[in-house]
Every structure is written in structure tokens, then in C-alpha cells.
Amino acid sequence: MKKIIKFFKGVKKEISRVRWPNKKEMIKYSVATITFILFFAVFFYAFDAIVAVLIELFK
């Protein structure tokens, strides 16, 4: 039981050291993440479409 208590005290200590992002930073990070996801979704969709067309051409 002492090990569990010691573990959670350590967790609490580490959490207090974390620098949490503010609202402005969270918005910036969220926009960057969504942009990144959308870019690669379009990229892989286009790549898949091009490969499908090429496969049909050479069948």
C-alpha cells in the first residue's frame, strides 16, 4: 500500500511541473493539427485515385 501512495504522490508532483498551454496556444496547435490531417487526407486520396486510374489503364 505504501508503494501505491508513493507512486501517486510522485504523479502529483510531476503534474504540478507540467506547463499547460493557454487558450491561444491550444487554438494554434489545434488549427495546425487539423490542417496537417486535412492536407494528408487530400494527398492520400489523390494518390489513391491516381494509382487506381493507372491500374485501370494497364489492365
What does this structure look like?
The protein is mostly helical and 59 residues long. It has a domain at 21-59. The chain has helices at 2-17, 23-57. The mean pLDDT is 96.
What distinguishing features does this structure have?
0% strand, 59 residues, single chain, elongated, mainly alpha
Q: What layout of secondary structure does this protein have?
A:
Elements: H1 2-17, H2 23-57
Percent strand: under 5%
Contiguous helical run count: 2
- Would you tell me the structural class of the helices and strands? mainly alpha
Distance between the termini: 68 Å
Give the tally of β-strands: 0
Supply Rg. 23 Å
Low-confidence stretches: none
- Helices and strands, in order, run as HH
Give the overall shape, derived from the CA principal axes: elongated
Task: Report on the biggest sheet.
Answer: none
Helix content: over 70%
Mean pLDDT over the full residue set: 96
State the assembly state of the protein chains.
single chain
Question: Quick summary of this structure?
Answer:
With 59 residues, this protein is mostly helical.
